[in-house]
Amino acid sequence: MSPLKLDMSLHILEDSGAPAGSHNHTTIILLHGFIWHSGVFEKMIPFACPHNTCLLLVNRRDYPGTTPFTKEERALLPTISPAFDWEDEENIAAAKGSHETFTEARAREVYDFLVELVKSGEVPRADHARNTGGIVIAGWSLAAIFMTALLAHVASFAGSQDDVNLNDFPPKPMYSPMFDDDIASEEQQKAFMNWVSGYFKHGGSAETLEDKTPLRHPPPTISTLRPEEIGCLTCGPPGEPGGSDEVLVHSGVLLGLFAALRTRALFFDKGEQDRDPWKNVEVRCVSSECSISAVVWSVIALRREIEEAKAKGVPTRNIRFVLIRGANHFVHWDKPELALRALVGDEDVIE
Questions:
Q1: d(CA 80, CA 222)
Q2: DSSP bridge pairs for 136
Q3: What is the sign of the dihedral through the CA atoms of 187, 193, 198 and 204?
Q4: What is the DSSP letter of 231?
Q5: How many CB atoms neighbour CB 168 within 10 A?
Q6: For the chain: N or C, fewer Cβ within 10 A?
Q7: Measured CA distances, 153 to 85, 118, 143 (Å)
């Protein structure tokens, strides 16, 4: 059906529509990751109605259909070149400040999108007892940055919402072809797409995670797609050297900003919890068993981080972990119904 029209900088690429006759469906907003736009979620659409949901596939800024970044907005993303002076504290502080301003602005865009969606009258009220209605907003892969930013800054916004899903955010830098100096810069994007869509066999500990080499069977998801499908589902410029997503990730990692953002998003300082309008929101960390090592490690690390915080009496958000067995980072394409169940179901393990 025709996508819902909202006058926003983000773009609804596809709208499954409300299930026929339903007055208590749940609205799921899906935000895409690096290079792949929200068309990559299209295989989930046929399962929306059977699960009493309405899916909105939403493109982030700099991707098809959205409002392009202005020069002023792009200037906020600091470029960390080999000549960057790591001894200059003022220079480092300025780079961190501009990056934080950029991510807060993106969080505000997501928040404003939610507000306009609710104002449209298309969202049934949430019934937590029956697990119906309301909104679930999910950020896949790189879009988890925008979910953590949303949670980190929502107390300075206003209003409330129902569910936020965090998918695959690493607490420290791990292997990625995009950071591999042994791969020519013009080949990194191609290598990344093959690697990130692979199936990996991991051991049961951080030391036995497989970083680089996916299984031959099942093959990487991208190898099962026709060239025209890949062309229709991807948008290269944001991920190319100097592109908005590439600079966002690269500078954020080097400046150590994502760990601080995660801490602010998931843990409360003394007295802060009572002032947060989203203090009762469920935060769902969805991961796939055969995903890239950074994903698997992030879940191990986050579980430990949450357990240690609770042992010290530090208040945390209501965090739930959901694991999808036998799935890779592209579960929404290879096993779309499992992906949908992970977002709205009551199971902690999906298979």
A1: 30
A2: 28, 163
A3: positive
A4: H
A5: 23
A6: N
A7: 29, 20, 16
User: pTM for this structure?
Assistant: 0.90
Contact call for residues 43 and 236 (beta carbons, < 8 A): no
Q: DSSP for 249-273, please give it.
A: HHHHHHTTHHHHHHHHHHB--TTTG
Burial category of 269 from C-beta neighbours within 10 Å (exposed 0-12, middle 13-18, buried 19 and up): exposed
What tokens does 200 get?
């990996």
State both tokens at 283. 């935060």
For the chain, the straight-line distance linking the first and the last C-alpha, in angstroms and rounded, comes to 30
- Residue 280 confidence (pLDDT): 87
The answer to whether the peptide bond before residue 64 is cis (omega within 30 degrees of 0) is no
Q: What angle do CA 105, 107, 111 make, to 5 degrees?
A: 115
* pLDDT computed for residue 112 by the predictor: 93
Averages of pLDDT over each 10 residues, the chain, 351 residues: 70 95 95 97 97 97 95 93 88 95 96 92 88 94 95 79 47 70 86 94 85 94 95 94 93 91 89 81 95 92 92 93 97 98 96 94
Q: In the block, which residue shows the tokens 């961190």?
A: 96
Tokens of 321: 């972990």
Tell me what pLDDT residue 64 has: 96
At residue 163, the pLDDT reads: 54
For residue 332, give the nearest of 26, 57, 106 by alpha carbon: 57
Other C-beta atoms closer than 10 Å to the C-beta of 276 total 16
- Measure Cα distances from 157 to 115, 152, 261, 277 in Å: 11, 10, 16, 9
From the list 260, 286, 79, the residue with the least C-alpha distance to 165 is: 286
Residue 62, Ramachandran bin (φ over 0: left; ψ between -120 and 50: alpha; else beta): left
